[in-house]
Amino acid sequence: MMAEHGGDGDSEVEDKGSGNINIKVSFGSNNFDVFTTPQSTFGDLKGVIAKETGLDPTAINVLFRGKENDDHESLLTAGVKDNSEVTLIENTSTGNDDLEKVEEIKENIEEVSRGLEAVNRVREENNQFEEQVVSLETVVCSGTQVADKDFIFLTEMLMRQLLKLDGIDAEGEGRIQRRLEVRRVQGLVEKLDNLRAKNSNPTSSVPDEPSLPPSSSKVDQECELSS
Question: Is 46 in contact with 91 (CB distance < 8 Å)?
Fold first, then answer.
């Protein structure tokens, strides 16, 4: 908001008598005068105007003859003389920067949401595959032989799920959930390998079996827990 200004007549006379020049400033519907030396730069002029108006000098532009001059250019070089007129406008770049930041935040949120939604879709598919793994586990633990192709098919499907997860571009929470889902699928693949090993050695629960695979003993423990 522009500050009140004006001062007393003595200060204006002092400014004029000290060799300073009078600059007439137009700011919207407001008009006022400021005083500075002819050797001042446009950057200096901005500082004087900012002091008069209370505006941030970095948030204003000063136009002379409809042109914005470089802050380092002197008023004398540009042709600014006593009683010359300049136009003051607020620089809205700061507001634009804020808008850009808001838009960037919105884009980041949307990106995280897209990644999370993609992970959730794969998770729903994995829920179905997990049910199939649990069904196979129940059958294997009951001592019933399962066709090897069932293990191969389900393992291949889970490997495809890993590829899907790897192809998801996720950030933030989406990345965390993707990592958790990858570990979950890897755990299901490992369980399938163990079940397949037990299925190929139905008598692996016998203690003195010399060819007992380490994974089979793990499945035996899981079977005991599920029984």
Answer: no
Structure confidence by residue, pLDDT tens digits, 16-26: 445 789 898 88
Residue 47 structure tokens:
């500082």
d(CA 150, CA 113): 36
Q: Closest by alpha carbon to 1, among 94, 97, 90, 95?
A: 90
Residues 6 or more apart whose CB falls under 8 angstroms from that of 225 comprise: none
Among 123, 131, 105, residue whose Cα is nearest residue 177: 123
CA distances from 85 to 22, 40, 82, 190 (A): 9, 15, 9, 81
Q: Are 158 and 196 in contact (CB under 8 A)?
A: no
pLDDT tens-digit readout, 84-124: 898 888 776 545 555 666 566 567 667 777 888 999 999 99
What is the C-alpha separation between 132 and 142, in angstroms, rounded? 15
User: What pLDDT is stored for residue 9 in this prediction?
Assistant: 42
pLDDT given at position 35: 87
Task: Find where tokens 């879709």 sit.
Answer: 121
Instruction: Quote the CA–CA distance of 23 and 81 in Å, as a whole number.
Output: 8
Q: Give the whole-angstrom CA distance, residue 194 versus residue 201.
A: 11
Contact 89, 26 (CB under 8 A): no
Cα separation, 135 vs 140, in Å, equals: 9
- Residue 105 is classified by DSSP as H
Give 122's Cβ-side CA count (13 Å radius).
26
Where do we find the tokens 């933030």? 172
